[in-house]
Amino acid sequence: MNRELFVQKYGPWAVVTGASDGIGRAFAEQLAALGMNVVLVARRGDRLQQLATEIRLRYQVEARVIAADLSAAMGRATVEEGTTGLDVGLLVAAAGFGTSGPVISANLDVERNMLDINCFAVLEQSVAFGQRFVKRGRGGIILMASLLGWQGVSGAAHYAATKAYVQSLAEGLHRELASSNVDVLASAPGPVNSGFAGRADMRMGKADAPATVARASLQALGTKATVIPGALGKFLSYSLLSLPRFLRVRILTGVIASMTQHQSAYSSQ
């Protein structure tokens, strides 16, 4: 990845949602290391302020903080208003979370919140920033999909469905915006060692590092429509993609079951 060409096309500002930890934080740090100014977006303003201070001191770039709940219309509007006047050339939509367990036992308020953040917020921001990038004649959008989104997965059915939406949206936008010199990428990792598992009430074994996911995604932007970052993600995808869809569903259902078996143990106590 040529640093000067990257910043020339996607700089000088990047907006990173979900920047308070995990994959979003890794993106923010790596973009700052490339010399880009960053707008950090997440609900936890205190964590964002701490990260912004670290980025300014370490990388000598500007870092702005927008504390916003992307599940709410007001939160999404705050991001658009807070970036007005900035020459933003890159959107990294890394905000999102997952749930696990049987759908019919789910808390629908939580599931609706996940749907709003994982899907509608991604759509709204892709439209808003996509329009800006088309007008400026260049730009990039990275949307976080998942290997789980390539088939239904029992035990994480709704989360997998939200990631199927993101994957499909990114693939369509990739074609629609190509003629406007706007690159769109779906990043579809496997298990990642981030805060995701804790919130989804899962226990992961092996997992790729957030920095690995961010690095591979930035390198792939502008060269392909979908990237599978990380050694574990590649191993899982290449092992599964040659199989019939029903077998992928069955295998990944077993993987999710192994990550959530403690839930049944707790419920029986």
Give the helices and strands, then pairings:
Elements: H1 3-10, E1 13-17, H2 22-33, E2 37-42, H3 45-59, E3 63-67, H4 73-82, E4 88-93, H5 108-136, E5 139-144, H6 157-178, E6 182-187, H7 196-200, H8 210-220, E7 226-227, H9 231-240, H10 245-267
Parallel strand pairs: 1-2, 1-4, 2-3, 4-5, 5-6, 6-7
Helix pairs in contact: 2-3, 2-8, 5-6
Summarize the structure.
This protein is α/β, with parallel strands linked by helices and 269 residues long. It has ten helices and seven strands.
Q: What does it look like?
A:
- By secondary structure, this protein is of the alpha/beta class.
- The protein is 54% helix and 13% strand.
- It contains 10 helices and 7 strands.
- The chain has helices at 3-10, 22-33, 45-59, 73-82, 108-136, 157-178, 196-200, 210-220, 231-240, 245-267; strands at residues 13-17, 37-42, 63-67, 88-93, 139-144, 182-187, 226-227.
- A 7-stranded parallel sheet has the order 3-2-1-4-5-6-7, sandwiched between helices.
- Helix 2 (22-33) runs parallel beside helix 3, helix 2 (22-33) crosses helix 8 and helix 5 packs parallel to helix 6 (157-178).
- The longest helix is centred in the middle third of the chain and has 29 residues, at 108-136.
- The radius of gyration is 18 Å and the shape is globular.
